[in-house]
Amino acid sequence: MQAVNILCCLFVFEPGLADLSSKWNNIRSRFEKPPPLWFMPTSLQREEILSDFETSGKPKESSWPDVPTELGQISGVAVDMFDRPVVFHRGPVTWDSTSFDISHRYRKIADGPIDVDTIVTLDPVTGDVLKSWGSGLFYMPHGLTVDVNGNTWVTDVALHQIFKFKPNSTKPALILGRRFSPGSDENHFCKPTSIAVASTGTFYVADGYCNNRIMMYSSGGTLIGQIGRQGSQLFPNMLDQFLIPHGLVLIEDQDKLCVADRENSRISCFNAGLKELERFGEPLVVSDTKFSGRPYGITAHGARIFTVTGSSFGWGIQRPKGHTLSAENGKVIDTWNSLNGLKNPHDIAISSDGNTLYVAEIGPNILTKFDLE
């Protein structure tokens, strides 16, 4: 078992599907869960699901101009206070098998930080660049969140750090983690993937690629608690046994924190502990057996969860697609896709009114807009 985990650590990286080595595919195929024979609800089940909560329809790709061609791998997307899409991209840098050593240390520090603006705000109608910043700050961008107060939160998996920036500032107001130093104690992260922020300022970090844990912090950055332990695809897992928690979304009015548990091929929701701290981490909801694929990004609006899944191999090919789930019971409501088919979706965000979704992809480096019918 230990040898298998070491091998997996060697080959867990995040490029587009075309860049994955055959060796890594062979390793993964041995542990991939058999996908269900069918995953779309029957008409009777769909009627039952839809009667449980409000839904505003199936996402449909919207016509909008191509985003700027100079964008690199788009690892993160969020929507700001003005419902404008914001993307976090890697410019000329790519994550491949040469990026990290076996201890998760970044190998290309000598190349310096990315020398182009990595955080870009777009016009939601035209796709034009409204503003950009972030040059000289980051090495390997990953997660992006914009909170209700306009603060921008990001994770950098090369730096093993998370950052908070106040509106219109390029100087971090908060930094957690040790620069270029992976670790598993309370002062370190190891390739953190995602951040979710409450209106109170309390926030959560998915310390995703190595530590498989979710950490809860006060608004000032004091650690409050954490959940999670290493999972394995060889045996059934408890909900807090993560295998790359890759995305987070906080459904604050339900006091619910949901996790895109990527290599366990599931969405898991827990008590967020905002109302009763002692209940933080209590399992609440897990996606049902009709959910298939490896979830990368996750967002939510009202009683609906939206997620995008990447390709999976092993017991049959699972193509990338979007899913809509019930936040109440984890049931799959619908699956959806772009007109040409998603290739390597990595993150997803939704507008405040719940009418527009944005899906960011890595290779091709594009942002696709969806209207909810």
Description:
- It is a single chain.
- The chain has 373 residues and is mainly β.
- Helix content is 8%, strand content 36%.
- It contains 3 helices and 26 strands.
- The strands form 7 sheets. The protein has a 4-stranded antiparallel beta sheet, with no helix packed on it. A 4-stranded antiparallel beta sheet has the order 2-3-4-5, with no helix packed on it.
- Strand 6 (141-146) and strand 7 form a beta hairpin.
- It is globular.
- Mean pLDDT is 85; it is low at 1-12 and 15-55.
List the helices and strands and how they pair.
Elements: H1 2-11, H2 22-29, H3 43-52, E1 59-61, E2 74-79, E3 85-89, E4 119-122, E5 129-133, E6 141-146, E7 152-156, E8 161-165, E9 172-176, E10 194-197, E11 203-207, E12 213-217, E13 223-227, E14 229-230, E15 241-242, E16 245-251, E17 256-261, E18 266-271, E19 283-286, E20 294-301, E21 304-310, E22 321-326, E23 332-336, E24 345-350, E25 356-361, E26 367-372
Parallel strand pairs: 14-15
Antiparallel strand pairs: 1-26, 2-3, 3-4, 4-5, 6-7, 7-8, 8-9, 10-11, 11-12, 12-13, 16-17, 17-18, 18-19, 20-21, 21-22, 22-23, 24-25, 25-26
> From the alpha-carbon coordinates, what is the Rg to the nearest angstrom?
19 Å
Q: How would the global form be characterised? A: globular
Query: What composes the largest sheet?
Result: 4 strands, antiparallel
Quaternary state of this entry equals: single chain
- Total strands: the figure is 26
Structural class: mainly beta
Distance, first to last CA:
47 Å
What is the residue-mean pLDDT, rounded to a whole number? 85
Number of helical elements: 3
- Which stretches are poorly predicted, pLDDT < 50 over at least 5 residues? 1-12, 15-55
Strand content: 35-45%
The run of helices and strands is: HHHEEEEEEEEEEEEEEEEEEEEEEEEEE
* Spatial order of the strands forming the largest sheet: 1-26-25-24
Helical content (DSSP H or I, runs of 4+): under 10%
